[in-house]
Amino acid sequence: MKEIMGWIRSIVYAAVFALLLGIFVFQPYKVEGHSMDPTLQDQQRIYVSKLSRTFSYLPDYGEIVVIDSRVERERSFLDDVVSHPLVALLTGTADDHSMYVKRVIGRPGDVLEFKNNRVYRNGEPLEEPYIKETMQYAADGKWKVPENHIFVMGDNRNHSTDSRDIGFIPLDHIMGTMIENPFKSEE
């Protein structure tokens, strides 16, 4: 009986450690769809650093982030726990498609314009070698990114649901920033 209790205690400690690691340090995600083509492929696994979320710092321009697309609702610590892969698997919410993988285009205070098939930030056209094809999108007026928000877009601009559709992303809806795959072999 003592040995069984030792095993159970070890398993509980490991599960708690994995939960804390996934909430505060890093977590794997799977890309769903083609909105980040050609940079990321459908069903590709990526690793996301949660440190920007844990320590509340703003991602840089061009960084790839995972966001909670449900911007109309407040997020809580419980949302972080429930979205953890272990908990999602146990609760049957593993197929939740509210997390999007996108690229940071605008930060608080930036003024964005969409004209001439390009994105302009603060009056300057962006150099975007990562996009799949010329953007077929134009919008009247300018969009100013509010405080405590970012503006994100997919690299496949013509086939992406992003800030143009769902609006500005509150900072507490940024799950983390993508890190290079530490397990990828160099060829």
UniProtKB/TrEMBL annotation:
GO molecular function: serine-type endopeptidase activity; signal peptidase activity
Reactions mediated catalytically: Cleavage of hydrophobic, N-terminal signal or leader sequences from secreted and periplasmic proteins
Predominant localisation class: membrane
Protein's cellular compartments: Cell membrane; Membrane
Pfam families for this protein: Peptidase_S26
CDD domains named in the record: S26_SPase_I (cd06530)
GO biological process: signal peptide processing
Annotated InterPro entries: LexA/Signal_pep-like_sf (IPR036286), Pept_S26A_signal_pept_1 (IPR000223), Pept_S26A_signal_pept_1_CS (IPR019758), Pept_S26A_signal_pept_1_Lys-AS (IPR019757), Pept_S26A_signal_pept_1_Ser-AS (IPR019756), Peptidase_S26 (IPR019533)
Active site as annotated: 35, 102
Protein name per UniProt: Signal peptidase I
Organism: Brevibacillus gelatini
